[in-house]
Write the structure tokens for this entry.
Amino acid sequence: MNKISKYIDHTLLKADSKLEDIKKLCEEAKEYNFCSVCINSSFIKDAKQYLKDSEVKICTVVGFPLGTSNSQTKAFEAKSAIKDGADEIDMVINIGLLKSKEYTRVKEDIESVYKACDGTILKVIFETALLTKEELKEVSFLCKDIGVDFIKTSTGFSTRGASLEDIKIMKECVKDKVKIKASGGIRDYETAIAMIEAGADRLGVSAGVEIVTGQKINSNGY
């Protein structure tokens, strides 16, 4: 798997991230040929300058990390981010509505952002750590029906990140109709490969450099 770098969304979403951190992230993404950088939307314009003349995409987050913003706010966030230069949008579902079995409202929330993206790649974050297997299946099927580009396991800010079981359940539901992004807790090459082999098409990681170079880290981050 010598092209693992193209699976990686090189991620920095911490609240105390500085401009110099974003610049370093972008420089690393260019050096290691990562698919994208995943950053908070306030840094999109800066990242666009740092990534000038490169093929690295800019991914940003919407309704992050709780997913509890109303649909209109999420849609506005997505439109604004795209206007600023985002190539991909990662949105968080309304987890509470899903657990309340308000499936129509969950679908409408996702659809509002899907329409706002208007062709821009949309990844829908589930926060699998907080879901039962049945809830995970239900929202996977909803996203398949809507036609989103990716479904994604986690924000990296909950009790755990992606698991192989999560990926296998999601893959079983969407087959090849929707791609899958595994995120949270992926900190070494072996885990990254296992996620890909289980069905992940993209990896959201802060340890991208360590993964592609084989370094070991002890971080508890994204």
Remarks:
- The beta strands are 8-12, 36-39, 57-62, 88-92, 121-125, 150-152, 179-183, 202-205.
- Residues 53 and 89 are 21 Å apart (CA to CA).
- The chain has nine helices and eight strands.
- The chain has a mean pLDDT of 96.
